[in-house]
Specification:
The complex is a heterodimer of chains A (434) and B (266).
Chain A: E1 2-9, H1 15-20, H2 29-37, E2 41-48, E3 52-59, H3 62-76, H4 81-84, E4 89-92, H5 93-104, H6 116-130, H7 136-155, H8 165-177, E5 184-188, H9 192-203, E6 208-213, H10 216-226, E7 229-232, H11 236-239, E8 245-248, H12 259-268, E9 274-278, E10 295-299, H13 300-338, H14 341-366, H15 374-403, H16 406-416
Parallel strand pairs in A: 5-6, 5-8, 6-7, 8-9, 9-10
Antiparallel strand pairs in A: 1-3, 1-4, 2-3
Helix pairs in contact in A: 5-7, 5-13, 6-7, 7-13, 8-9, 8-13, 13-15, 14-15
Chain B: H1 2-25, H2 29-57, H3 65-87, H4 90-109, H5 124-158, H6 164-168, H7 172-205, H8 213-234, H9 240-259
Classes of the chains: A alpha/beta (434), B mainly alpha (266).
Amino acid sequence: MNIIVIGLSHRTATVEIREKVAFSPSLIEKPLHDLIALDDIVEGVIVSTCNRVEIYATTRDIAGGISRIKRFMADHHCIPLETLEPYLYSYHSEAAIRHVFRVASSLDSMIVGEPQILGQIKTSYGYAAEYKSSGIILNRFLHKAFSVAKRVRTETKIASSAVSVAFAAVELAKKILGELTDKTVMLVGAGEMCELAAKHFLNSGAKGVMVTNRTFERAERLADEFGGESIRFEELFQHLHRADIVLSSTGAPHIIIGPKEVEEVIKRRKFRPMFFIDIAVPRDIDQKVDDIENAYLFTVDDLQEIVQANLAQRSLEAEKAEEIIDQEIGQFYKWLSSLEVTPTIVALRNRFDEIRRTELDKTFSAWKDLPPDAEKRLEALTMAIMNKLLHTPTTVLKQAGQGGRVDLYVDALRQMFALEAAPEEKEELELEED
Amino acid sequence: MTHLFFSLTLGLYCCASAAYLACLLRTSSTLTLWARRLLTTGFIAHILSTVHLASQAQHLPLTNLQESLSFFSLMIVGAFLLFERRYKVATLGSFISPLALIMLGVSSALHGEVRQLHPILQSNWFWIHASLAFISYAAFTIAFGVAVIYLIQRHFVKTKHFGALFQKLPPLETLDEISYRCLAVGFPLLTVAIISGAIWSEQAVGSYWVWDPKQTWSLVTWFIYAALLHGRLTIGWRGKRAAILSIVGFIVLLITFLGMKHSITW
């Protein structure tokens, strides 16, 4: 049995194409059933996110399976296959395993290391399990992919650094203020990025939020949203000393917070440090503020620089992740190969036994005056011959199952002795807790 | 036995220093873990060596520069291990453990003559004075290390250099807090050490304060740290100013310890 992957992603297709072939999660049952109804497709999982649409399936016939699934994707979305084909990639066997492990570990993501994709694959797998389109191989395969992703996350620092400006602000604040649990955030103005950063700060444990804005109603609304305190813009400097973190993004054409004000505020705070982030263009906070002792001012450009550096760091970590994936592929492939050993041995034995039975029956019916124990003796003799003949192939096959080159033997045996497809093994796999 | 433990300590501190310095270059939690294990084992060997020496000599090994340096470095390592547990500041080890190693190295290079315990040292006040002084020195040494790291980290922040070292060094506020804790522990100990020293001086030479260079410089050290602690608690001296003062205090402390011979003993 082989694993195949067919799909397209942000690497191969524009968003216009991607949204055309996306599968809606609420209507996923029918395509899943259609998928496994295809000839020679045994199991199937459909992963559809805004950055990728992929189908994982198992089949005996790699080339046929891939082309049928491509056709299925085109037909399902009513796109001519010729239009869709150039955007599609396909993998089988080891390459397919590697691809899915990399995707789950977020090595193939638009921003390497962002963890959402793992959750999305888990959800997709959940649908496949619910509608019974995945079976023993894909179950095991995807659980393995989840555990590989977990290993990558814990053993490398691929997801540990901030790659968004808002998150970089939080990380930077931690580098200066230490723990944020007793820190208060003040929003001056209400830009989108400031709101996002404030959310990140609160998620990282910041104690409270103050919001001020030229239109007081807006400040009140935002303060409500964060469970914080709204402050009139004119009273900004009466409250500024209570803020450890100041995020500023007003649309004002001039400087709002100057060095003189900050100096006074810092003195009032007994020189406890203050962390300023100025997101506004033109700037809200005078650059001279940064020269004041215990005041730390950063602009969007500074944060952007951190983000770039972190991205570079992530690609270094990605190399370590590839090594982990290499190890895991070997293990999984071995399991996948060994999966067919036992059924093949059973089928081979059955085939031999069947021949033996037929020939014995023929002999017994043709040969009327047999001595009394002849039947028993012939039975024992043929049995001994069959066992001797089967002994070496069985041993070799079992050994090959541990070595990983078993596909070759299994295929050869199946063809040479016209064995039937292996019966599906029944195995229940518990959903791994993360 | 003492010698064996001492060599073992020296070897382990050497390995720990190498490991801690490697931590600066490579981020690896296993490396950090092993650095700490090596240093902890070295610390235990150091304690055994000190205890053994003390039991042989029947007094604390604080009577000459060789012994004092070894005791000093023992206290520094002990203090660091405590702070490391509390604040998770492994990078401080890259600074502290080589320092302890150097002190111990110098101590082992010094000629340690076995000599009769000077009669004037046979006073409980002397032992209280000397051991407290070294514990406070250890606290101030940590404060010094933290201050240096603070200034380096502050430099990175102010010049917006967010490199690998910046990522590794602890947050500014954490450093500042450790520095304050060290002062809060070190200063009272130093005060008691100076007072017990004066009492001992009275017993030994009949005068509480003889204005010899050692006593004078001790007083200077005390005033610097007093000013720093006072400034911090009342005006809010923190950050860069506190770090610089802490470094100045440590330099004066070194002068007191190394440069000034005691008119009474040495």
